[in-house]
Amino acid sequence: MAAAADPAAQLADALWGARRGSLLVVTGAGVSVASGISTFRGTDPGAIWKRDLTELGTYRYFCSDPVGSWSWYLARFDQVFQARPNPAHEALAALERWQLAAGGRFLLVTQNIDTLHEQAGSRQLVKVHGSADRVRCSRVGCEHGAPKGSLPRADLDLSAFRREPSVDHLPRCPKCGALLRQHVLWFDEYYTEHEDYQFERVEREAARADLALCVGTSFSVGVTALILQLAFAREIPVLSVDPAAPGDGAGSGMQVLAAKAEEILPQSYRLLAGMI
Fold it and tell me: Which residues are annotated as catalytic?
């Protein structure tokens, strides 16, 4: 094929070369910015880190102030549930279908807890940090709690808590009566604490990937460190779609494509479709 002349062509060339191999895609908050969801560590004005709220995303905070924890997450999730997939989500779902049809393997690992990848049609998906559309019992071992259980958020009646946020109105487990919590990986917890995070599956796929594509991630969490470590050790290509500079954890073995995900991913997919 001709030498790539622009970031979209460079990405399309790399994807074409891995079409019969194993493609691992890792997405972070940046992929959902065009859908109106603020990042955590990004440069956009709504970035959560800019408001110094790191402590709110911990099990420790939930235990000390469950009313405050639930109130903060409800406010944030109201924004999340209003969002719709953008062209980046749709292009990744189309890329999954294209890769599988070509005889290759595909796994999308998202750090995001929104449901935009699912809405766009992604199926080979691991939500390694949990999902906003589910809750779980805070008591480990309960059938609705870790390490296996959870409940649909849609089944909860939160109207009383919204009217009057108080201990008396906190949602409780229908099985054991313990407090319910968000079905997310908090910053003082481990990937192995719940089977839904599928961390062992991520490790397996990262260990045999032929190409790793990172989209909208700052490389600031454990799962990205693991994937980069395995990729660099095996000397497979690693591409990062990021309109800004990569995070400190990116290392030197990565090709950075300075473009917006919602622009480069659809462009690259159209180029791929034309190569068949």
Answer: 129
> By three-state DSSP, how is residue 188 classified?
coil
Question: What are the beta bridge partners of residue 105?
Answer: 22
User: Which CATH number does the domain housing residue 212 bear?
Assistant: 3.40.50.1220
What is the count of structural domains for the chain? 2
Q: What is the pTM of this model?
A: 0.91
pLDDT tens per residue across all 276 residues of the chain: 444 469 999 999 999 999 999 999 999 999 999 999 976 544 554 444 444 456 889 999 999 999 999 999 999 999 899 999 999 999 999 999 999 999 999 999 999 999 999 999 999 999 999 999 999 999 999 999 999 999 999 999 999 999 999 999 999 999 999 999 999 999 999 999 999 999 999 999 999 999 999 999 989 888 999 999 999 999 999 999 999 854 444 455 799 999 999 999 999 999 998 886
166 and 234: one domain?
no
C-alpha–C-alpha distance, residues 27 and 251, integer Å: 17
Between the alpha carbon of residue 110 and those of residues 24, 151, 271, the distances in Å are 11, 20, 24
Range of 66's domain? 38-82+134-184
- 163 and 45 in a single domain? The answer is yes
CA distances from 4 to 10, 81, 257 (A): 5, 38, 12
**Same domain? 88 vs 176:** no
The radius of gyration of the chain from alpha carbons, rounded to an integer in Å, stands at 19
- Interior/surface letters 12-32, b for 16+ CB within 10 angstroms, e for the rest: bbbbbebbebbbbbbbbbbbb
47 and 160 share one domain: yes
